[in-house]
Amino acid sequence: MFNRFKKQTNTGATGTHEFLIVGLGNPGNKYTITRHNTGFLCLDMLSEKLGFRIDRLKYKSLMADVNINGHRCIVMKPQTFMNNSGEAIRECASFYKIPPEKVIVIYDDISLDVGKLRIRRKGTDGGHNGIKSIIYHLNSDQFPRIKVGCGKKPHPDYDLIDWVISEYKKDELKALEPALENACKALELMLDNNTEKAMNLYNS
Fold first, then answer.
1. If you average pLDDT over every residue of the chain, what do you get?
2. Which residues are part of the catalytic machinery?
3. Which residue blocks in 85-142 are alpha helix, DSSP H?
4. Count of CB atoms within 10 A of residue 178's CB?
């Protein structure tokens, strides 16, 4: 999906850890390209683009310790399954003393069409169980987030769990890819304290 990126060599991480960047999803091959794994897919694109691997197992997560735009970041894919994402994030944020305001979460949003983005500085859980878990474990909703549209349920009676663990269709993946690229660009702006610019450029 992302092989057109030219890999760059990440020069390694130095200095104090500033940010925790989290992509939400579920572990296991059967979930790889499901809607609920949109956060994982975004971090996969980021790692391809910047040339690092998210493969260190720590804090119930797959992690990387990297410099992005001069900021030392922990990049994390919780392996706790979606509904318990907050457990892993709390452990890591507590160890590295990263406040909620510097925890950036990337995740799927069923209220947005595939290919749409919504960047927020903070907010409620919006009915998303992964976000609900993070708010509970951080005891805060003051963390910025990048919501990536995964599409609305086909009809109101469609089971929500079945929908979010369904795979993206081929045409949806074509729409998703540029959205993930824009999410990566927005993330880099947010690290540079340009969240307002990211919102203006990429909210849709």
1. 94
2. 36
3. 85-96, 129-138
4. 11
